[in-house]
Each structure stands twice: as structure tokens, then as C-alpha cells.
Amino acid sequence: MIKVIIFDLDGTLYKSKEIAEKFARAAHYTLSKFKNIPLDDARKLIEEKRQQMEKEYSDSVPQTLILNSFGISTESWHKENIDFFDPRDYLTKDEKLKKSLDGLKKRYRLTVLTNNNKIQTERTLAALGLNALFDRVYTYNSFKLLKPNPEFFQKAVEDLNVEPEACFFIGDRNSVDLEPAKKLGMLTYKVKGPEDIYDLLIE
User: Total domain count for the chain?
Assistant: First the structure.
């Protein structure tokens, strides 16, 4: 029996070209700064690495993992993107999503599991009007772990005090979100964005 619904954040609870572009530009700036190379060179290196890693993952790859591959720590990347932009400047409340989550919350515990950092996650959920709906919000800062590392999922399940089989994971990427969750025994559901959650019913 499902007791907990776990949501990915970026690309799942919202979809925004502006924020995706901001994350990309922040990544270019971060690589340029830490490697002391021109911004355009940093952009080219990141895009080349992205194409290479997407072949490996058969999916889109988080900026964090791309920058990690260049030796830039997750902590450094998070500090830079926090300073670079604020999601609240680009997002508005999603009343349809809130209504859907309100309905699900009557039957299930709701949580978030994201590679994003605590500050950007809080900003995002506040902008969407969803910050009061989740029992737990797990970010990189929670355990210093990143998806698709299965330990991140396992730590969250242990903290929730449930079995993986009692969890339903909702995300937008197979290799980063759904496959690790499924290997632990969770039920999974792939979405293209919040519109796929609006009418979601879970037995």
C-alpha cells in the first residue's frame, strides 16, 4: 500500500525555459571562474561534456553532475547558482498543481527529493505556493548525496520510516530519478512537467 509520494523538483513540479537557461548560464560562469578560462570556452566544454554524458545516461544530465566531472564540488556550484539567480523572479503560483497536491495530501505523505540545494529549493517551492504541502524536503544538503546514487533514495526512505515498496516516486528522468527508485522497489511515474500531475490519482 502506498503511504508516501516522493516528487522530483526541477522539471517535475515546474517547467521553465528561463530557469533552465539560468542554470545553464550559471554553470558556464562557474566553470569559467574556477578554471580561469573564457566564458565561451566554458560553454563549449560543458556542452561537449553534456552530449557525452547524455549518451552514457540515455537521458538529460543535471548541471551538478557535469560540473562534478570537471572537478568542481557540488558545494561550490550551489554557492554560485544561489548568487547567480533567484527562481522567484521567474515562477508564479501553480494553483492547479496546489489543488492536486492538496487532494493527494489527504491520503498520502508528500515529500520532495532533489539534487538542488536547500536555498534554491525553498525559493522554488515558495514561488509555486507549495512550500507548506510537503512533510519532508530532501535536497543535496540533507545527506550530501546526489541522484542517481541509490543511497540518496535509501536515506530518505529510512528517514521517512517506510519500506521502499510503500513509496511512489514521480520524476521526469529515467536514469536519474526513476531507475534508481525502481531498483529499490518503489513504484514510479514519469512526467513531462506539472501538467501530468494535475489529475493524478493513486490507489
Answer: 2
Please name the residues in contact with 196: beta carbons below 8 A apart, sequence gap of 6 or more: none
Is residue 203, in this structure, part of any structural domain at all? no
**Statement to judge: residues 117 and 182 lie in one domain:** yes
pLDDT tens for each residue of 166-200: 999 999 999 999 999 999 999 999 999 999 999 88
Residues 87 and 184: beta-carbon distance below 8 Å = no
Residue whose C-alpha cell is 529549493:
121
Inform me whether the pLDDT recorded for 98 exceeds 70.
Answer: yes
CA distance 93 to 101: 13
pLDDT digits (tens, 9 = 90+) for 113-163: 999 999 999 999 999 999 999 999 999 999 999 999 999 999 999 999 999
Q: How far apart are CA 52 and CA 60, in angstroms?
A: 11
Looking at the fold, whether 178 and 100 belong to one and the same domain comes out as yes
In a shared domain, residues 124 and 63: no
Whether the CB-CB separation of 157 and 143 falls below 8 Å is answered with no
Identify whether residues 26 and 109 lie together within a single domain: no
Side-chain half-sphere CA neighbours of 154 within 13 A = 8
Cell numbers placing 170: 514521480
Give the domain extent around 99: 4-15+92-196
pLDDT at 160: 97
